[in-house]
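Hey, can you fold this one?
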Amino acid sequence: MVDNGQRPTVWDWRQSALICASLMIIGFGLQWAVGSVVWTVLAWPVNIITLVALLLGLLIMHALRNKVHLFRYLSTLPAAIPSIATTLILTMAMGLIRQDTNGHWLHHMLTSWAFVLAYAYMTVIIGLTTLRRLSKIATSLRKPKRTFSLSDLAFIFNHAGLFVALTCGTLGNPDIQSLKMIANIGAIEWRGADDNGMLHNLPIAIELQRFIMETYDDGSPRRFASDIHVLTKHGKELQATVDVNHPLEIDGWKIYQYGYDTQAGVQSRISIFEFVRDPWLPYVYVGILMMLAGALFMLFGSGRKEVKAS
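Sure. Predicted structure:
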């Protein structure tokens, strides 16, 4: 086991490889026994309960690190590198293999148990590693000189930011809403349909005022957009033009220009919009900003060894 400056042993690396291999075997077994991961079971409020349980679990594991070998080991380098390698290999496989809802588990990696367990294991390691470094910083601040290294700050921001981005991006996925709305010229529409065709009332309404379409010389569409009047249940009203790849953002929703009546073409009197809401996305951005801050600490603090604590 690696700690207090000790060099890793062969057993340290074998131990982590064994854990990763065991997680893959468990993942394959769960995939065969119960099928793919059903992310919808983690929808609000289950996801926030899961996040609280994860944080409490990490704090307990950190508190018991000197009594339980596994908890202490999980915050070491030999535990981290094979975990990162495993998740990297699975992520690369997902990028190289076409992803769809049919076929082998490799074709729908995000719902495979092996992929989920690998990322969960890596997230736990990142959390425990961050807590370990925070503990070391707290110990150093109790010393008479009361100094800490800027590299420590960079480490904390990078790892804590990655932890926030991973957990919020994963646990927030079941709360993402995506609805399609068909708006007719001169009519106010409040409803959107999900992927199963079920209609849902939205807090935002659209009145399509004009469908815009520009074509190439051969008649194929070059650009299509919509002039719309937007109303919300909170009393907001605004005029806007929604263009492809230029969504309108309002009250936590993004409204995309999705389609139109392809048979009518330029004469289309309807416009199809996609409404997307991801309530956890701001927290993912917070994690990314933390990682950027960590990178800045590494860049601009590389020439300074330590700073005095106030």
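The mean pLDDT is 90. Let me know if you want another pass with a different chain boundary.
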